[in-house]
Amino acid sequence: MVKVRAGVLLVLAACFAFQQLSASDDTVFYDSFDNPFEGRWVVSSKEEYQGVWSHSKSEGHDDYGLLVSEKAKKYAIVKELEKPESLNDGTIVLQFETRLQNGLECGGAYLKYLRPQEAGWEPKIFDNESPYSIMFGPDKCGLTNKVHFIFKHKNPKSGEYVEHHLTTPPSVPSDKLTHVYTAILKPNNELVILVDGEEKKKANFLSADDFMPPLLPTKTIPDPEDKKPEDWDERAKIPDPNAVKPEDWDEDAPMEIVDEEAEKPEGWLDDEPEEIDDPDATKPEDWDDEEDGEWEAPRIDNPKCVTAPGCGEWKKPMKRNPAYKGKWHAPLIDNPSYKGIWKPQEIPNPSYFEADKPNFEPIAAVGIEIWTMQDGILFDNILIAKDEKVAQAYRETTWKPKFEVEKEKAKEEEDVQGAEGFLVTLQKKIFDLLYTVADLPFLNSHKSKIIDLIEKAEQQPNLTVGILVAIVVIIITIFVKLLFGGKKPARVEKKTTGATAASSSSSAAAKEDEKEKENEGTSSESEKEGAAAPRRRTTTRREN
Length: 544
Fold this sequence. Notes:
- It is a single-pass type I membrane protein.
- The chain contains seven helices and 25 strands.
- By secondary structure, the protein is α+β, with helices and mostly antiparallel strands.
- The strands form six sheets. Strands 2, 5, 7, 8, 9, 10, 11, 15 and 24 form a nine-stranded antiparallel β-sheet that branches. Strands 1, 3, 4, 6, 12, 13, 14 and 25 form an eight-stranded antiparallel β-sheet that branches. A two-stranded antiparallel ribbon has the order 16-23.
């Protein structure tokens, strides 16, 4: 009773803590999808987005999420914040969970954090052209396998928005478990990417090595108006114009010629072939010329050629032609007109600016706009917070319990698959052994029956044990007969009177004659049947 009360108190405490998190001033936005998304999120009405969103449970849990329910579709859904949230006033944490329940071969599972849209924009027209401040999350297709982090930044000089991609981003976990992705934007220009609470990437927004293209433009750029002069020579070497091909240079001479000085080695066996029929090979007993074709012995290397210099027709070998020089080319000399590799001149970059920190556009909405070949992608617990501790607390209360259950279940399934794989391997080895046993000479008369039983066991694994027992019984029976013989003990006859013995002898002789006639008739019929139907061939082993 005490334990039950303690458990209830723990549950109530967890619920209270969760409510406190949700109500915290550091929580900018949070959606657990415990309730249907209709009325809170808006599905795009654009024609190309035919994918159907579903409010569904995560497999194996009572926890709900936002589900991609159909394959090979485009999806778009968006949720506007109550007010735009600045990314320039301190730490901002972007976090969400996603579970690839059917894997992810080609598609995205990322979020777009939209900046304020132009006047007249409505959530129902959300599409891939809707401007965003940050795009973050998994993306996988072909050689692409990464957790995107892309931000769009407005150049204060040109007024253009430039898309900056994180270089060497983390890869996407390849399993079907729930994973939580966290991006922490710090006021010291640092970006930290976490996957399942573990740091996978750290970058600096001002570093030219961390983003492509870099946030800060170069001071100078190649002059787009500059053009290479027509007489600009970039060749460092040129053929010597004064060089002349030597008179004795034969371009048509072959690279190799016959070695006329070569002599046939002593002991060369001109009349011996390099390969011969295997003299030890014999035609299999069950070979049927009509069905299998004419039998030919396999070929082997002629043993006589092993010790001899060679066999067959001897021909003079080829050797390199000393007169061969190939096609003549004039030698290269330094180019007196060489000016180097031309490059346009550098001019001041009109888009150059300096900054101590990026000037992010605020987040006005959270959207999911993806194209994917897989269904079963589940989004859950989408969070925007101002404190890393808030995100950590959500991971501990919403993600970790689910992940631990899924991880344990996945481990159990792997153990089962491992055991099944071991049994399959063991079963194959047993069959290999049985096929070898079936080829033993003393089992020839029963080989066909044994192979039939083995093949049944391969086709019906549930019968394997019973069939193995039957095969063992057959082998033991034959073995016993070979050891102790198959003759019946002599029968001891009772003494009889002369008359009775004669009568019995006569009767037995008569019966013996009748039996011989029956046997002759049966033998004749068997021969006719044998002529009509060919002998059944022994089934050969199938490869697994």
